[in-house]
């Protein structure tokens, strides 16, 4: 139930397009909840019996294949749509293809690479001792600040091809945020002994 619920928030994020205060308020935390739930589900597993490399390969298979299939469909559809509109140019074509290759994704597909990278960082962090985990946390916050500043500066520059640098920075920025939210969820689960999330969600749906 918990695994399915996290994807519900991503879908809800992109289908609720009504411009009203309720939608705006809801959109401010749906993605956060998605990564919090992901962290909760990850914290329930034992990673001592699997290496980071093995975990990465498994996730690459489970994330990579669906992502590649749907991304290919999105690329073809985007090119066909721009062709139909008569506005397909080298710039637009390059933007579509580069969005795919840079892992930025197209439309709702952005969250798959972000979740993939965030989970790998989380498992790698779990493999280290307390001191190294703290160092990784501090470095992550520092890197996030640099990426956030870089993304902001790229958006301000008047350069049509600045997205070549912008898109990878956006992916890394969101991935670090995902990692930190997953880590936060893990710590909450460990130290505050909250009720099992699937029970809370199941009870809320039953009500």
From TrEMBL:
Residues 28-155 form the Acyltransferase domain. Keywords: Membrane, Transmembrane, Transmembrane helix. GO terms for molecular function: acyltransferase activity, transferring groups other than amino-acyl groups. It comes from the Bacteria. The chain crosses the membrane at residues 22-42, 63-81, 101-122, 134-151, 163-184. InterPro entries: Acyl_transf_3_dom. It holds the Pfam family Acyl_transf_3. This is Acyltransferase 3 domain-containing protein. The lineage of its organism: Bacteria, Bacillati, Bacillota, Clostridia, Lachnospirales.
